[in-house]
Design brief:
Blueprint (H helix, E strand, L loop, with lengths): L4 H9 L6 H12 L5 H14 L3 H12 L15 E5 L7 H11 L4 E5 L9 H6 L10 H11 L1 E5 L6 H11 L7 H14 L4 E8 L8 H17 L3 E8 L7 E2 L1 H12 L5 H17 L7 H13 L2 H12 L16 E5 L5 E6 L1 H13 L13 E4 L6 E2 L6 E5 L5 H11 E4 L9 E5 L6
Parallel strand pairs: 1-4, 2-3, 4-5
Antiparallel strand pairs: 5-13, 6-9, 7-11, 8-10, 8-12, 9-11
Bound molecules: uracil (URA).
Length: about 450
């Protein structure tokens, strides 16, 4: 019997589950332009209200993963482990994790994105290193992976074009915030990019998609179940995004902070999250350890003996960059401004998205797709939640080459923080680790 989109919309509206063939046809025809946006919008809204079963979500994920090219990593020996963050402010963990895992003998083929809106993107951070090229051909991508042990670059192929089209439609139809739709969107791209195992950093809080721990857990568990059904073992770390991660927000400033961790130091919360993610990646690889403590000490060892930093240098060189820049990775900005709090007291909460927006206004991000990033622009955060602040001490320093952006960025930043007389309870950066079998 012919599968017609009108019938599928009716079926989903009634809360019935769609079958594999029905989802395959729907995704194939929508990608090819044979289903118009108005019908797909109705379907997305029906999914938003009715949800999807695990099987449906997996069929949708695989149909989207198969809508374009898939990257074939079979020429690289060993289990390839990928990681994905749901997006945040000051999130530079990829810059640390990829060389650490490579130093431990675990190949990592990472395709990263650029920042948009208030969230940063790893490609922009890497390109702030003089000479680094992120747009690699597929051959170069595989060559760098083979030579260095890891690669981190912009997407080389048309991966999951169905997701690209559906995501744009969701964005304008009020259907982004649906757990099966987010989960299938993320996992389709991970599956198409060829990894055997996947570690997810699911951000939770005022600078993330998922505002609450419960919703972040639900999303993480859903993605782990898709991973299991699709034959990709997956683990998730739920991490706090109720304040920026680490001290730096801005592209070269974040490279500087990542290099601090690769040199064995670094800000504590940022370092803690890198360690938690690296442990999960190592434990999913074929280099896994008997227990978590051993995994930690092997990770500490490659940070201490300089081999992780060495891998990062090799990578920078392999993609045309200046590895000497990593000795002192600072790009000076013309203008600098201290930001003082609006009142005295304890920093109680932070509108993290607003901090990201302030950095973007300074030149660290884009408001339109083709805006040019200023690698030197950004914010150095001097106080974290729970710190007592006074009117005499700055809570942050702004850096930019565009002086006119300073007043708006300053007020966005000052107003991002709520200050009160009561010291808030400290929240750890790692809120929960969910492994296959520990969820529903
Ligand atoms: N990131 C994605 O790739 N897709 C979503 O739907 C949400 C976040």
């Amino acid at each position: 019997m012919e599968i017609r989109i009108n019938d599928l919309i009716e079926k989903k509206k009634r809360g019935e589950a769609l079958g594999k063939e029905e989802i395959d046809v729907m995704v194939r025809d929508y990608t090819a332009g044979a289903i118009p946006d108005y019908q797909m919008s109705a379907m997305l809204m029906a999914i938003w209200f009715q949800g999807m079963t695990d099987e449906e979500t997996t069929y949708l994920t695989l149909a989207m993963a198969d809508s374009g090219d898939r990257l074939d990593l079979s020429s690289i020996p060993g289990i390839k482990v990928d990681k994905h963050s749901t997006g945040g402010v000051g999130d530079k963990t990829t810059l640390v994790l990829t060389p650490v895992l490579a130093a431990l003998g675990v190949p990592v083929a990472k395709m990263s994105g650029r920042g948009l809106g208030f969230t940063g993107g790893t490609v922009d951070k890497l390109e702030s290193i003089p000479g680094v090229r992120s747009e690699l051909s597929e051959e170069e991508f595989l060559r760098v992976l083979g030579e260095v042990g890891f690669v981190d670059a912009a997407q080389t192929k048309e991966l999951a074009p169905a997701d690209k089209k559906l995501y744009a439609l969701r964005d304008v139809t009020g259907t982004v915030d649906s757990i099966p739709l987010i989960a299938s969107s993320i996992m389709s791209k991970k599956i198409a990019s060829g990894a055997d195992r996947i570690v997810l950093d699911v951000k939770c809080g005022s600078g993330a998609f998922m505002g609450t721990l419960d919703s972040a857990k639900e999303l993480a568990e859903q993605m782990i179940r898709i991973g299991r059904l699709a034959g990709r073992k997956t683990a998730a770390v739920i991490s706090d995004m109720d304040q920026p991660l680490g001290r730096m927000v801005g592209n070269s400033m974040e490279v500087e902070e990542a290099v601090e961790v690769l040199k064995g130091g670094g800000e504590e919360r940022f370092r803690t999250l890198c360690m938690a993610l690296a442990v999960e990646m190592l434990q999913l690889s074929d280099r896994r350890c008997d227990n978590e403590d051993e995994a930690r000490s092997r990770i500490e060892a490659v940070l201490k003996d300089g081999s992780a930093l060495g891998k990062f240098r090799d990578f920078v060189r392999a993609v045309g960059g200046d590895a000497n820049f990593l000795d002192d990775p600072v790009i000076p900005a013309k203008y600098k401004k201290d930001v003082y709090p609006v009142a005295e007291g304890y920093l109680t909460s932070c509108n993290t998205a607003q901090v990201g927006l302030a950095a973007s206004r300074l030149g660290a991000g884009r408001s339109k797709k083709d805006d040019v990033i200023d690698p030197a622009a950004g914010i150095c955060i001097l106080a974290k939640l729970g710190d007592r602040v006074s009117l005499e001490s700055p809570i942050a320093v702004l850096y930019t080459n565009k002086e006119e952006t300073l007043p708006e960025a300053e007020s966005l930043l000052r107003e991002a923080y709520i200050i009160s007389d009561e010291k808030p309870e400290e929240k750890p950066v790692v809120l929960e680790v969910i492994r296959e079998g520990s969820g529903k």
